[in-house]
Amino acid sequence: MPRVTSRDNPRLAELARLVASSRDRRKSGRCVLEGDHLVAVYLDRVGRPETMVLAEDRAADPRIAALASRMPPCDVLVVRASLFAEVASAPADVGVLAVVAAPRARLPAPARRHLLLDGLQDPGNVGTILRTAAAAGVTQVLMSKHCAFAWSPKALRAGQGAHFLTAIVEDVDLARWSADFRAQGGAVVATTAHEAVDLYEAEIREPWAVAIGSEGSGLSPALLAAASARVAIPMPGGTESLNAAAAAAVVLFELVRRRRGR
């Protein structure tokens, strides 16, 4: 395995750019995985990363060494701990980074369970919601144009491998998709506090798509107009709203409970 001592190494410099620049990630369609868990999920679900980078002081760790053994030696770089810390956005003790092509799913045929994310700006929220969606058995997550990039380091860390367990499609016209989905017999469920029925009283049958909006603006008027139902989460404690990730978890796992009941 090559040992790298300079940040000017082309592959290490490229990794640093991808960590630092959302524009470079979007333009190249590539991203950086940080930590042995994410890298292991990618290897198991997708394939080999383009490049793997190990911190020299962690290279002998059994979990990290096992990951490196699944790569061609020429594609594994070993760097000193201080240099690893310079290029990583996560704490240096994660020990391993990997450059991978971000899976870019084309808009697939509708399935039975979907999540629509409209204008969510916080990548940590996006990653947390993706993790929840995968756990709840959501088949497709469709994201509007103005959502945070799903493949940013912060979103990937929050997702904890969920990115590779469900189909993620970005830059989707959610209102148009919803209209088509309804025409095929699907239910589009908008989460909103306005003119909505109680979540626990609403009738929601598969196939469905649950729409979650940003905490500041909520769902767009066009997506609200395209929905077949509006639901609100009852909050007897008196707060005005929930964090978007918390709201997604409440709604999706209420639907899981109903499936189990049937």
Tell me what portion of residues adopts beta-strand conformation: 15-25%
Which geometry do the CA atoms define?
Answer: elongated
Q: Are there runs of 5+ residues with pLDDT below 50, and where? A: none
Q: How many strand segments?
A: 12
Q: Percent of residues in helical segments?
A: 25-40%
CATH level-1 class of the largest domain: Alpha Beta
The average pLDDT is 93
Number of domains: 2
* Largest sheet data: 7 strands, parallel
CATH architecture of the largest domain: 3-Layer(aba) Sandwich
Please outline what is shown here:
The protein has 262 residues and is α/β, with parallel strands linked by helices. It is 37% helix and 20% strand. The chain is built from ten helices and twelve strands.
Keywords:
elongated; Alpha/beta knot; five-stranded mixed β-sheet; seven-stranded parallel β-sheet; 262 residues
What does this molecule look like?
With 262 residues, the protein is an alpha/beta fold. The protein has two domains: 3-101, Ribosomal protein L30/S12 (60s Ribosomal Protein L30, Chain: A, 2-Layer Sandwich), CATH 3.30.1330; 113-261, Alpha/beta knot, CATH 3.40.1280.10. The chain is 37% helix and 20% strand. It has helices at 10-20, 22-28, 36-45, 62-68, 81-87, 123-135, 153-159, 174-183, 221-226, 244-261, and strands spanning 3-4, 30-34, 51-55, 76-79, 96-101, 113-118, 140-143, 167-169, 187-191, 197-198, 208-213, 229-232. Helix 1 packs across helix 2 (22-28), helix 6 packs parallel to helix 7 (153-159) and helix 6 runs parallel beside helix 10 (244-261). The radius of gyration is 20 Å and the shape is elongated. The model has no long low-confidence stretch (mean pLDDT 93).
